[in-house]
Each structure stands twice: as structure tokens, then as C-alpha cells.
């Protein structure tokens, strides 16, 4: 169908842009990379490479599909006229990238009519590319990605993250402080996009975080769902910047209501 053709085209463009940006970031990372600017707080940083990567990706997208909209973390905000909107995070895991830690990724999603059609998360230092097409399953490289069977919450390895605002972090740490005694263990990987892909491939049982932005989760959300995870926000609500939860059925509901009890989205 026409929609299948569109999805295939968008996937090819997303894979190409993610690989080019990934190679640029991996090979071009300056030895003396520093902070170019700060955003919401002193620890919410941007490097010259975040900006250059977004520029590279938006240029490639504009060349391939000039009428599409684009929303990017570092300021890209193009309305477009085709109905397709790209949602991109030019480096997810900037603090890891700044320090030379390997967990960072390029995240590219394409949406239409409020639905994510395609998601690509490329993690150069893992030499892994995660991708999904709506209704077409999720893959890591050429292998199908599949969630791990749901354990009891008490035996779950749970990923999470912290925002950049001090008050918000204190509250997030309180929730983690309670949850840590009720699960197998907690991981803070530093890239929300990779965390969602780790749920998709069974490297984490579950993931949750408060305060993400659409560019953090757009691609990873589709990849996790196509790999068999459920994703959402507060109980009964879709995933949103307020709360992002991803886990296989069974664990998902338990974690969601536990986070509800712990007031994970209250200030
Ligand atoms: C951040 C990462 C991190 C998460 C933060 C995000 P950035 O994105 O995904 O894991 O905890 O909430 O803002 O700033 O590195 O693109
Ligand atoms: Ca991000
Ligand atoms: Ca980013
Ligand atoms: Ca950022």
C-alpha cells in the first residue's frame, strides 16, 4: 500500500541520517570537547557537536523530503506541509558523550497523524542500530528485537534517569530511594533512547522516567512497543513528558501502579 511505501522510504532516510550523524560524532569528537552552552541549569549542557549533528541531520532530511516538518532538541522547528514530522535528538546522552562514556545515540523518528511510523536509534559505540516500523516489528541490526519475559517486580532490573533541575532531581531520587528496595536493581544509563531499546532487547526488564521530551522517547517508544513492550504514562494514560514507562505486559501494570503509589510525578 501507499502507507507501506511511505514507511519504507522514511525508514531508509532515517537509517541513512542516523548512520551519517553517528559516524560524524564518533570520528569527529574533539579531544578537548567542552560545553558550548547551558540550558535549563548549569548541568544541562550542549556541546558544539550536538548542534553540528542536528544541522547535519536536518540538512539530510530537507534534501530527501523538503516538505516535511522537523522538531529537534537543539532548536529545529519546521512546520512542513506534507503531514510527516521528524522528531530528532542529535545526541541522546550528551553528558556521556562529553565525558567519553560510550552510551549515547542518535535518535530519529517520523510521525504522521499523531502516530509514530518509524523509529531509529543508532548507538555508534555499541556498534548497534535499533529500528522499528509501525506494525513491522523491531530489529537490532538484522535480528528481531524481543522483550524479556516479565519477571515479578521484585526481580526486575529497572532503568531510569534524572532531569536537569535540582528540585526535580531530589524528588526523582526520593522515588528511586523507595523503589530500589522493591526491585532487583536500578540502572541509570544516561540515554533515554538507549534505555528504551534496552527494554526492547531484554537488557533491561523495564524503564521509567519523569520529564522527558518527545525527542528523547519518540523513536525508542516505537522500538519498545514493536518488540513486545507496553509503554505509557500514569495508569491509563499514554506516555508523555509527564511520565514514560516501558515494560512487557504483566510487569508494566505493576510498575505503573507502584510508581503511582510512590507519587513519581508529584513535585
Ligand atoms: C537526556 C538523556 C538522559 C535523561 C535526560 C535526557 P540529552 O537527554 O536521555 O538519559 O535522563 O532526561 O534529557 O540531554 O542527553 O539529549
Ligand atoms: Ca535526549
Ligand atoms: Ca540531546
Ligand atoms: Ca540535552
Describe the structure.
This protein has 267 residues and is of the alpha+beta class. The chain has 2 domains: 2-144, 2-Layer Sandwich (Fructose-1,6-Bisphosphatase, Chain A, domain 1), CATH 3.30.540; 153-261, D-Maltodextrin-Binding Protein, domain 2, CATH 3.40.190. The chain has helices at residues 2-28, 48-64, 94-99, 166-179, 192-200, 214-226, 251-261, and strands at residues 37-38, 45-46, 69-72, 77-78, 84-92, 105-112, 115-123, 128-133, 138-140, 143-144, 157-159, 185-187, 206-209, 230-232, 244-247. The structure holds D-MYO-inositol-1-phosphate (IPD) and calcium ion (3 copies). The site of one calcium ion (CA) has 6 residues, from strand 5.
Features:
267 residues, alpha+beta, Fructose-1,6-Bisphosphatase, Chain A, domain 1, D-Maltodextrin-Binding Protein, domain 2, eight-stranded mixed β-sheet, 7 helices, 36% helix, binds D-MYO-inositol-1-phosphate, binds calcium ion, Inositol_monophosphatase_CS
Report a brief summary of the structure.
The chain has 267 residues and is of the alpha+beta class. The protein is built from seven helices and 15 strands. Strand 1 and strand 2 form a beta hairpin.
Strand content: 15-25%
- Could you name the CATH topology of the largest domain? Fructose-1,6-Bisphosphatase, Chain A, domain 1
| CATH class categorisation of the largest domain | Alpha Beta
**Within the largest sheet, what's the order of strands?**
4-3-5-6-7-8-9-10
Report the biggest beta sheet as strand number plus sense, adding barrel if it closes: 8 strands, mixed
Bound molecules: D-MYO-inositol-1-phosphate, calcium ion
Structural class: alpha+beta
CATH homologous superfamily label of the largest domain: Fructose-1,6-Bisphosphatase, subunit A, domain 1
Shape: globular
Low-confidence stretches: none
- Oligomeric status: single chain
What's the SSE pattern? HEEHEEEHEEEEEEHEHEHEEH
Count of strand segments: 15
| Total helical elements | 7
Cofactor: Mg(2+)
Keywords: Hydrolase, Magnesium, Metal-binding
Pfam family, one: Inositol_P
EC number: 3.1.3.25
Amino acid at each position: 500500500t501507499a502507507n507501506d511505501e511511505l514507511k519504507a522510504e522514511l525508514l531508509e532516510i532515517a537509517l541513512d541520517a542516523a548512520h551519517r550523524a553517528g559516524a560524524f560524532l564518533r570520528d569527529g569528537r574533539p579531544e578537548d570537547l567542552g560545553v558550548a552552552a547551558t540550558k535549563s541549569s548549569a548541568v544541562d549542557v550542549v556541546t558544539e557537536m550536538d548542534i553540528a549533528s542536528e544541522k547535519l541531520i536536518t540538512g539530510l532530511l530537507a534534501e530527501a523530503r523538503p516538505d516535511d516538518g522537523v522538531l529537534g532538541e537543539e532548536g529545529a522547528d519546521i512546520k512542513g506541509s506534507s503531514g510527516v514530522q521528524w522528531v530528532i535528538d542529535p545526541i541522546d546522552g550528551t553528558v556521556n558523550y562529553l565525558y567519553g562514556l560510550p552510551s549515547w545515540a542518535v535518535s530519529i523518528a517520523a510521525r504522521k497523524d499523531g502516530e509514530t511510523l518509524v523509529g531509529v536509534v543508532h548507538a555508534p559505540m555499541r556498534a548497534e542500530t535499533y529500528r522499528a516500523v509501525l506494525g513491522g516489528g523491531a530489529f537490532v541490526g538484522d535480528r528481531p528485537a524481543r522483550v524479556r519475559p516479565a519477571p515479578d517486580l521484585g526481580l526486575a532490573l529497572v532503568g531510569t534517569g534524572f532531569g536537569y533541575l535540582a528540585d526535580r532531581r531530589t524528588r526523582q531520587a526520593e522515588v528511586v530511594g523507595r523503589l530500589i528496595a522493591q526491585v532487583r536493581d536500578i540502572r541509570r544509563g544516561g540515554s533515554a533512547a538507549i534505555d528504551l531499546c534496552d527494554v526492547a532487547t531484554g537488557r533491561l526488564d523495564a524503564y521509567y522516567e519523569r520529564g522527558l521530551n518527545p525527542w528523547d522517547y519518540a523513536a525508542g517508544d516505537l522500538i519498545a512497543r514493536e518488540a513486545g513492550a507496553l509503554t505509557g504514562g500514569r495508569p491509563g494514560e499514554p506516555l508523555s513528558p509527564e511520565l514514560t514507562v516501558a515494560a512487557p505486559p504483566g510487569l508494566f501494570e505493576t510498575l505503573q501502579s507502584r510508581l503511582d503509589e510512590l507519587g513519581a510525578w508529584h513535585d
